[in-house]
Specification:
By secondary structure, this protein is an alpha/beta fold. It has 10 helices and 30 strands. The two termini are 40 Å apart. This is Beta-galactosidase.
Length: 610
């Protein structure tokens, strides 16, 4: 596969051609950003052993440029070139899906949040509509071009096609925008082949395709390929996203997609020699704060995604061949001339007889507040993005003079707030759904004013709002989703007078690796929520493990400084995946930040997600 190859389209639009011969794309999608780099080869081999010949992958722009102009294509699992070369070394072709927008149940659909500092920003549009957005896109693609060009099939690499944007027909109809992105690649010396991805109805209605570009269909099957081929006879059509499972939101009744069976769809695609991509064949994990969110188009309900991206995919979150995998492997193998390679052995897990972890109270967030931002930036509380913060938490603090209680309205908080008066937790608000029976100490819903009791004196009181930003919306027209306080905060006093609160102190808590490493082990407020807990896990050998957080309320877990992601007792996910490369023989440090608990609870160790 290292010599130059010519990948093209059949002249009658009837499929794809590789080196002059008809070629069926049998693709499985997975995302390097969701998989520890140490497991990349194993997962690629798993895809190959299921009968696929291609890997489709998203590039998450905001993973590589979290702050403006500061790119990282080298550290950890950000080395996209290495991943693509690894695909090639395993005899796999590549479909590259670089965005700039990818959706992917990923924070802001992969678009960097620094763009949201502009109050009037427009995303996913051409230069004439918003030059700031397209200037950033041009800088991003400019960084990709020299990395991608040598990896194109025509230059001896494994990349067959590059996708232009993603599912744009579900967002708008703007041919100039898609063409502007295509031209960025062409000016860099990459002339294609290109393709687009959309639902059948969306591509028909909004004509969201590019000149001479192939068409991939979301939720596609053989019948839809036939229908699209009649509408667009000049270019090949493939099933670009065939769903073997589905995404899950916090608060769903169960993990989604478990009942999906693609057997009939997959058999027909193979029998008719049609090209397809399974989205996703292996989902992995939205580690850290990368999980995205949706907003229900009918109700406006905010729906953050869980940390696991298991997706009920054929290859599980931890890289195990599921029953679906074995069934689909057998279907594909019927139509292939050569036997498939053996299924790779699964990665080892920790012994299940390891005792529970009992963390100890370690530190208080209130003893670890950084210096407040300059007063000029905090007259009115602003969203995270206006302070240059990508994710994590922010404390908004206001001194209330002559405080005698009242009702507090924090407006459209994004996305979860804990409210303290004089250091005492008095309630909170959640933008996401929260069944009252499981709400624990939270006693209000989003947008309901919070009654604050009077202390019976005219002394000043300190109001603290500890706000968590969860996933930014990654799909639809609600993507301008800033985090933190996005509306003024008002207090109505006992006499019924309402006043907007100004003149705040603001403390940024990104909870990144540096912050966690430098936590001071101080706990001046052991009974005040907002505590860090620590436990040591002593190991002779390492293996994959899940941490069961079902006895905790809501927070984040780090293992040896690696952020496993969020947990939340509204479920349905109760366990967080910790890959073996993040552990070491000897003592391992487990850090938990819980927004509510002041007493530690056991953490059970498990070998599976459920």
């Amino acid at each position: 596969m290292n010599s130059a190859h010519v990948f093209s389209f059949a002249k009658n639009g009837d499929g794809f051609v590789l080196d002059g011969k008809p070629f069926q794309i049998r693709s499985g999608e997975m995302h390097p950003a969701r998989i520890p780099v140490e497991y990349w080869r194993h997962r690629i081999q798993m895809v190959k052993a299921m009968g696929m010949n291609t890997i489709a992958l998203y590039i998450m722009w905001n993973c590589h440029e979290p702050s403006e102009g500061a790119f990282d294509f080298h550290t950890g699992n950000r080395d996209i070139e290495a991943f693509i070369r690894l695909c090639q070394s395993e005899g796999m072709w590549v479909l590259l899906r670089p965005g700039p927008y990818v959706c992917a149940e990923w924070d802001l659909g992969g678009i960097p949040s620094y763009l949201l500092r502009y109050t009037d920003i427009q995303l996913r549009t051409d230069s004439a509509s918003d030059s700031r957005y397209m200037s950033a896109v041009a800088r991003y693609i400019g960084e990709l071009v020299p990395r991608v060009k040598p990896l194109m099939a025509i230059h001896g690499g494994p990349i067959l096609m590059i996708q232009i944007e993603n599912e744009f027909g579900s967002y708008a109809s703007n041919a100039a925008y898609l063409e502007e992105i295509r031209q960025l690649w062409i000016r860099g010396g990459i002339e294609g082949p290109f393709y687009t991805e959309d639902g059948l109805v969306q591509v028909e209605q909004n004509r969201t395709y590019v000149v001479d570009g192939a068409i991939a269909l979301s939720n596609g099957d053989a019948a839809q390929i036939e229908a699209a081929s009649k509408m667009f006879p000049a270019v090949p059509v493939m099933a670009g996203e065939v769903y073997p499972g589905w995404l899950t939101h916090w608060g769903d009744s169960a993990l989604q997609g478990t009942a999906v069976d693609l057997s009939a769809t997959l058999d027909e695609l193979m029998r008719k020699n049609l090209s397809f991509n399974l989205y996703v064949i292996h989902g992995g994990t939205s580690f850290g704060f990368h999980a995205g969110a949706n907003v229900d188009a009918d109700t406006g309900e905010y729906q953050p995604d869980i940390t696991s991206y298991d997706y009920s995919a054929p290859i599980s979150e931890q890289g195990v061949a599921t029953a679906k995998y074995m069934k689909y492997r057998e279907i594909v193998s019927r139509y292939l001339a050569r036997p498939l390679p053996d299924v790779p052995e699964p990665v080892a897990t920790l012994a299940t007889d390891i005792r529970s972890l009992i963390p100890q109270r370690f530190a208080s967030v209130w003893d670890n507040l950084p210096p407040s931002l300059p007063a000029g930036q905090t007259v009115d509380p602003q969203p995270f993005e206006m302070y240059g913060q990508v994710s994590g938490f922010v404390v908004y603090r206001k001194r209330l003079e002559h405080y005698r209680g009242g009702r507090l309205d924090i407006g459209d908080v994004h996305d979860y707030a804990c409210v303290f008066i004089g250091g005492e937790y008095v309630g909170g608000a959640s933008r996401a759904r929260m069944p009252r029976a499981r709400a624990k100490s939270l006693n209000i819903r989003h947008r309901e004013p919070l009654a604050l009791a009077s202390s019976g004196s005219n002394e000043a009181a300190v109001l603290d709002l500890l706000v968590e930003g969860m996933g930014r919306v990654n799909y639809g027209h609600a993507m301008i989703d800033r985090k933190g306080l996005v509306e003024p905060v008002a207090l109505r006093d006992e006499s019924g007078v309402t006043g907007v609160l100004t003149g705040w102190e603001v403390f940024l808590l990104p909870m990144d690796a540096s912050f966690i490493e430098n936590i001071r082990p101080m706990c001046s407020y052991p009974n005040r929520a907002g505590l860090f807990f620590r436990a040591a896990l002593s190991l002779d050998t390492v293996g994959d493990v899940y941490l069961d957080m079902s006895q905790w309320t809501k927070g984040v877990v780090w293992v040896n400084g690696n952020n496993l992601g969020r947990y939340w007792n509204i479920g349905p996910q109760m366990r967080l995946y910790c890959p073996a490369p993040w552990l070491k023989p000897g003592d391992n440090t487990i850090t938990v930040f819980d927004l509510h608990q002041t007493e530690a609870k056991p953490i059970e160790l498990a070998s599976t997600l459920t």
